Amino acid sequence: MSAIVGSAPYLYVCTRFRVRRMKLIPQEEYLRMLQMSLPEIIRLIQETEYKREIDELSHSFRGIDLIEVALSWNLAKTYQKVLEIMPEGLREMTESYLRRWDIQNVLAILRGKAQGLPPGKIKEVLIPAGELDRDYLDKIITCAEPGKVLESLKRWRLYPVLARELPRATESGSFSFLENELYKQFYHDILDETGAGIKGGKEFLEFLRLEIDIRNLQILFRLRVNGAKGEVVTFFIPGGTFTVEELVRLHETSSTDAFFDSLTAQLKNRELISLLGRFRQKNGLVPGALHEIENALTLMQYSRLEMMARYHSFSIWPILAYIERKKQEITNLRAITRGKQAGLSTEQIRNYLVM
After folding, report:
1. What is the mean pLDDT of residues 268-286?
2. CA nearest to 259, candidates 248, 243, 275
3. Which DSSP string corresponds to 219-265?
4. pTM for this predicted structure
């Protein structure tokens, strides 16, 4: 990768992203949607920047299916436009990061096949924002069984992991371990690729380590809440500020109080320490608190991104902040529409939103 010389590319790109950020749906709009019926929400979404995709797809889909596919298409197109305006070096880092969508899409196809879903239903949830484009994913969807899916992915960079772990996942009926192994390899590769001499490389590494820490903490809490026993080292992702050995020791801490004390003692992030303190007083580590903890950790990650974007206004941070916030906008809209369709209460749906 060649270095980016001077600050001009960042001045231009970051200014463009500030404009894009202003178009994201604000928190008060999500709260307003929670008080609406599903048809009202669909009409509201049709009046936003998703209108073009909705119009394009309206001849093939209806209702919530139309919204699902339109959201996916919009996100993929948004990321493509993001890459188009980026200079060399910065673009390559972002392309590497967006490869994580390939993992999500492949797993969605495999899980859909295992559940016997028709290709059309699987396609609704795919977001072709990585290396595997829409045409390639469409071909994979037509495969009749997981073995055929594997065969069609021989050129995928994560094929060796998929080939190694898919038989176990198919036999057990659970894709969780496969998912974890794919993400571990993804983070290993992207950390390895982010070399010196790239403007923004140091900041990008800091962002990746923050993301790995958040994912590992979510895994750690999940293991504690579920009372996982035995070997847990394979669940954690190397590369963050916590070593895998430290995370294993935290998991093996006997009492909940000792767990919170040990974790807090190792943290350097004041916001995260405060967050853990609130959960320690409020819920402890009960199953009902797990989703709330995971959401709070995600929100804390976004808060950190926003702070770094403000502090380093002409760097890769504003770009990463926009990419993550745009992804969360899609997730929130899906949570609202799916929740309304399922008849969930306003409070239940709100618990799934990250705002």
Report:
1. 67
2. 248
3. HHHHHHHTT--S--GGGSPTTSSS-HHHHHHHHH-SSHHHHHHHHHH
4. 0.87
